[in-house]
Amino acid sequence: MASGRGSNLAALLSPPPPGSTFPQRTSPGRFVAFATDKPGCPALAHARASDLAILEFPVTRATKPEFEKKVITHFLNHGVEIVVLCGYMRLVSPEFLRAFPKGVLNIHPSLLPAFPGLDAQRQAFDYGVKITGCTVHLVDDGLDSGPILAQAAVPVAHDDTADSLAAKILAEEHKLYGQTISDFCCGRFQSQGRRRISPNH
Ligand code: GRF
């Protein structure tokens, strides 16, 4: 699911760079369906180019429950078991999470639990941290609060701007998300309470 630019989606759907492991090649998972709450968003073009089964539905606060019901039906009809959020800009409901008990994954552009919510790269930059990064986590019913699967650190250089920092984080996102999804689909994560542990993370 995505709402915007879709660079993470594009990275996930691209052929893997040599030496890396991406879901299509190495895990039992493959991408089959896509849904957006923003018809016409750039992410949609990437989904179309990869022949995913597409659902577009313009969402307002009033129509979000209807949208989620349509997405659940669309995904279940296409055999979706794990949902990947790629810049999907809404919270998902407990009902939605219950429909996909194997997991809903998200990527967030900070080292959670620091700087949840919108504009996390700028939040971290303005706060003055020396290291930030990105986090892949399971979605729960809070804001960027689910169990952490993987993180990548990005040092803040003295001459960084909020924009240059965001670009560095995005490059790490594109590497981390595919690898983590692949490991998740392969069942490489084990649970210890809230902790999620795999040989790679
Ligand atoms: C990324 O920064 C991601 O971490 C956040 O939303 C942004 C989506 O970017 N959840 P893109 O649409 O994948 O380019």
Condensed summary:
This protein is of the alpha/beta class.
Verbal overview:
- With 201 residues, this protein is an alpha/beta fold.
- It has seven helices and eight strands, in the order H-H-E-H-E-H-E-H-E-H-E-E-H-E-E.
- It has helices at 7-13, 23-26, 42-49, 64-77, 94-99, 120-127, 162-185, and strands at 33-36, 53-56, 83-84, 104-108, 131-138, 148-155, 190-192, 195-197.
- The chain has a four-stranded mixed β-sheet. It has a two-stranded parallel sheet with strand order 1-2.
- Helix 5 links the parallel strand 3 (83-84) and strand 4.
- The protein is globular, with a radius of gyration of 16 Å.
- It starts with 6 loop residues before the first helix and ends with a strand.
- 5-O-phosphono-beta-D-ribofuranosylamine binds at residues 2, 4-9, 43, 86-87, 107-109, 170, 173.
- 5-O-phosphono-beta-D-ribofuranosylamine binds next to helix 1, strand 4 and helix 7.
Write the layout of secondary structure elements.
Layout: H1 7-13, H2 23-26, E1 33-36, H3 42-49, E2 53-56, H4 64-77, E3 83-84, H5 94-99, E4 104-108, H6 120-127, E5 131-138, E6 148-155, H7 162-185, E7 190-192, E8 195-197
Parallel strand pairs: 1-2, 3-4
Antiparallel strand pairs: 4-5, 5-6, 7-8
The protein binds 5-O-phosphono-beta-D-ribofuranosylamine (GRF).
5-O-phosphono-beta-D-ribofuranosylamine binds next to helix 1, strand 4 and helix 7.
